[in-house]
């Protein structure tokens, strides 16, 4: 999983170097998925994940931005600053998708390393 995480980070840095900040999340999502595919990773976009409530699975429109190798969730933002609600969102996604590793990446930063959060359940 560490190798996948490293590939996610390297891919994000490549995309950020080429595009810079200031674009829509959808642009970064598409380009990051493409960059990771070029590196040989399996990447699925906008994956629906049901919420289980009272033993019933409900499709409530909750979607993962990217699922890499079916093991790592990548949640993409293009906002002024990450907030605790964004961390909570990714933690919820990890729990409901039964995935242990996730990355929260805010591309709207001058230095991308300031927009990275790595979360492990």
Automatic annotation (TrEMBL):
It comes from the Bacteria. It holds the Pfam family PDDEXK_3. This is GxxExxY protein. The lineage of its organism: Bacteria, Pseudomonadati, Pseudomonadota, Alphaproteobacteria, Caulobacterales.
């Amino acid at each position: 999983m560490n190798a996948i995480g490293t590939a996610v980070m390297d891919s994000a840095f490549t995309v950020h170097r080429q595009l810079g900040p200031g674009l829509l999340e959808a642009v970064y999502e598409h380009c990051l998925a493409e960059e990771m595919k070029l590196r040989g990773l399996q990447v699925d976009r906008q994956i629906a994940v049901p919420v289980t409530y009272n033993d019933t699975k409900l499709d409530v429109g909750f979607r993962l931005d990217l699922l890499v190798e079916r093991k790592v969730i990548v949640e993409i933002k293009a906002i002024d600053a990450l907030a605790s609600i964004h961390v909570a969102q990714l933690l919820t996604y990890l729990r409901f998708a039964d995935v242990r590793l996730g990355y929260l990446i805010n591309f709207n930063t001058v230095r991308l390393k300031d927009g990275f959060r790595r979360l492990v359940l």
